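I'll show a typical protein example:
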Amino acid sequence: MSNRFTTNQSRAILICAGVLILLCTFFFVFQRNMDSVTEIEKEARKYKNQVNYLSNLQMQVNELQGTTAEHQKEMDAYMKEFPCKMTQQKAIENIEKMRIKSGVRILAVKPARERKFLDAGTFITLSAEEAEAAAQQEAAATGSAVAVSDVEKHPEKQQSVDKMIGKVMTYEVEMSGTMKQIMSAFDWVAANKEHMSVTSLNLAFDSSTGKLTGPVSINYFAMNGNGKPYEEPNISGITFGSKNVFGTFK
């Protein structure tokens, strides 16, 4: 009886030991491996998503490469629509052409200092007053005039788009004319092959003459580095002085 009890105890102990071994194997080996498998599966899904994302990007790159040359051609053509620089002579020529085309009377012309709207591929959103103040502060801080880049020194030399410098000069043109003539002048500015824009106007109607009179601000744009040769305008037929339409220039 004692031997049988001992044998049963031994079996129970063996069974418990086996169960304990199984439990230990499950929790310390199998479960830990399952956790590792779960982590590996998460990492695998993560890398798979990255691969899919990169694959989609590569497809987009391949599509864009096929149209890069065409877009570059369009960009070059657009940049060539700007003059490489805007001089007072060029601005005067444009104003005179506008006058002849529309029939408006030009009473006075007041030029403003040029400022940048594009610098090395970055658009500048400063207003004219803010740009002027920034230039003065920079000059005061350095104790000298604002440095001029090589692109500005040689505006006719071809540069890549990311090096071009866009500039704008605002001219205040005091004009007088009928509504039709004034609108014709604005249409000429809008349709000109060189980029210009009317930024502000302050016209007063004179009921005795039926004409509008007042200042109109016109922006003239240039693109330094677009490779377009500058053509000196012929303004020999335009007189200057206090008794003509361009009384501001002497």
Q: What stands out?
A: The first strand starts at residue 105 and ends at 111. The longest helix spans residues 2-79. Strands lie at 105-111, 115-119, 122-123, 165-177, 196-201, 204-206, 211-224.
